[in-house]
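Need a sequence for this fold. Nothing fancy.
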């Protein structure tokens, strides 16, 4: 006897049906019936809604499996009446299964070669059947960006940027009648775009306080710094590429989350690289730095665009956005201004904004500490190898052989001095008396004195030349300079610690 939708009046009735009956009932329903069933349980039975979503997904998979088509990507629209939702299926390769995603929003971009859709990962009844249902991501909203014949370099950079920012989910490339299509599947960022935030909040009766507006600006700086720390130049900073999510805390304060989106024009810097030139100029009017017009991108071009955006769209006072200021400098000034105005009782900082500001200050402090550490590490030489003494001893013995080419008296003088250096090296290289760092300092000091002719009894011109050559061969000059600077610093500090001279009575 067929099951009538009208008989499903309560959860109890639905709960008595076995799985086969539920599947059959769902397949036989009209789109209107499915919507009515969904609405029946929407308010107080979320577990049933998950079950209905699973039935809908199963129906979509059944449709895609029965459709005989050579297309690598298929779409099933809810308008066809077969499912409650719309779905997209991306055909797998010989090693990959087909992947089915639920479409919850269609959004066309201005570029006809690019389409962006919001999709949702569906939870499978049987995880072995549905490889895309990763436990930690079930039900998470995703976005698929569909590119037709994309520029290979831009595509590579976008994928790398998304990977570094931990936003990438999957990349699928397929051939179609239009050419090569690439599907970049990424995490969806909640909220509204920055350019519309004040207008949309005003419609809800929400106006950001000066402190909350400053926190919005600070968080915009933070996401740019995060990208820069990963070596990513965003390349198209504008209010349409920031997603702002505004929520209320349990205490009623405004909580602001900011995310950076659309890395389609991103550039990836190699270690030590500061800018990229000769690029295609892709820019948003009123925000892009002048250098972008000639295809030059750097962190500074991002900083320029961010300054424009903070001034025009977040309404940050221009006095806090010095020309040529970096993102770090802008962020620092906004924080300092916020604290100054709070101390002068010009503004009130709510608890949530205070916490956000303290977090930002901690990040800035950590960044500065890292910069100092990097600077010291860059100036300090790499540790010398434990085999250094052995190698220098071998080099000196080798040079001793050339002494045989000199006249008898001079040959003996050179050999004596080189033997003296070897004895000194042996006495220095005693791990029972000195640490390796101490031995390293003593070694470089000795060699520097001999090479400069300042070591008494070891200043024959040929010996000086030999030791100077060894310093060059083993890259010891940087160590010598570093140790000399360190000694001078210690002497200066010691001088400062000396007690003032006693006056004679």
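Here you go.
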């Amino acid at each position: 006897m067929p099951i009538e939708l009208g008989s499903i009046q309560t959860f109890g009735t639905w709960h008595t049906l076995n799985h086969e009956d539920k599947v059959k009932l769902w397949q036989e329903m009209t789109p209107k019936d499915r919507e009515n069933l969904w609405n029946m349980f929407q308010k107080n039975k979320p577990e049933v809604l998950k079950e209905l979503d699973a039935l809908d997904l199963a129906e979509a998979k059944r449709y895609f499996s029965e459709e005989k088509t050579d297309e690598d990507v298929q779409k099933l629209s809810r308008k066809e009446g077969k499912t409650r939702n719309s779905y997209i299926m991306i055909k797998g390769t010989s090693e990959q299964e087909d992947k089915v995603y639920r479409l919850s929003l269609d959004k066309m971009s201005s570029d006809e070669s690019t389409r962006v859709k919001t999709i949702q990962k569906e939870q499978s009844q049987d995880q072995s059947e549905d490889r895309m249902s990763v436990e930690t991501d079930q039900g998470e909203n995703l976005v698929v960006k569909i590119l037709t014949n994309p520029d290979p370099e831009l595509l590579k950079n976008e994928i790398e940027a998304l990977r570094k920012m931990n936003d990438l989910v999957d990349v699928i490339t397929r051939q179609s009648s239009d050419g090569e299509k690439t599907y970049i599947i990424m995490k969806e960022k909640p909220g509204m775009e920055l350019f519309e935030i004040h207008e949309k909040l005003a419609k809800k009766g929400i106006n950001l306080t000066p402190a909350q507006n400053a926190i919005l600006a600070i968080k915009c700086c933070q996401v740019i710094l995060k990208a820069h720390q990963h070596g990513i130049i965003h390349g198209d900073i504008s209010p349409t590429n920031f997603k702002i999510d505004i929520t209320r805390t349990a205490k009623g304060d405004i909580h602001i989350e900011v995310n950076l989106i659309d890395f389609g024009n991103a550039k990836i810097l190699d270690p030590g690289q500061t800018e990229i030139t000769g690029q295609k100029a892709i820019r948003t009017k009123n925000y892009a730095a002048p250098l972008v017009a000639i295809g030059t991108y750097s962190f500074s071009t991002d900083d320029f665009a961010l300054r424009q955006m903070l001034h025009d769209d977040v309404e940050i006072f221009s006095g806090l956005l010095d020309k040529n200021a970096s993102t770090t400098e802008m962020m620092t000034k906004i924080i300092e201004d916020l604290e100054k105005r709070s101390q002068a009782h010009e503004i009130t900082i709510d608890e949530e904004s205070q916490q956000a500001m303290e977090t930002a200050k901690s990040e800035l402090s950590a960044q500065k500490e890292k910069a100092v550490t990097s600077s010291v590490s860059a100036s300090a030489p790499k540790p010398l190898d434990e085999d250094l003494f052995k190698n220098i001893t071998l080099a000196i013995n080798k040079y001793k052989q050339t002494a045989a080419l000199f006249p008898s008296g001079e040959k003996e003088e050179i050999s004596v001095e080189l033997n003296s250096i070897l004895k000194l090296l042996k006495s220095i290289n005693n791990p029972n008396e000195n640490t390796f760092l101490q031995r390293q300092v003593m070694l470089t000091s000795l060699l520097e004195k001999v090479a400069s002719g300042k070591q008494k009894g070891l200043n024959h011109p040929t010996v000086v030349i030999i030791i100077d050559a060894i310093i060059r061969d083993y890259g010891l000059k940087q160590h010598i300079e570093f140790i000399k600077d360190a000694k001078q610093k210690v002497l200066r500090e010691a001088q400062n610690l000396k007690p003032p001279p006693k006056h004679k009575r």
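For context: The longest strand covers residues 99-108.
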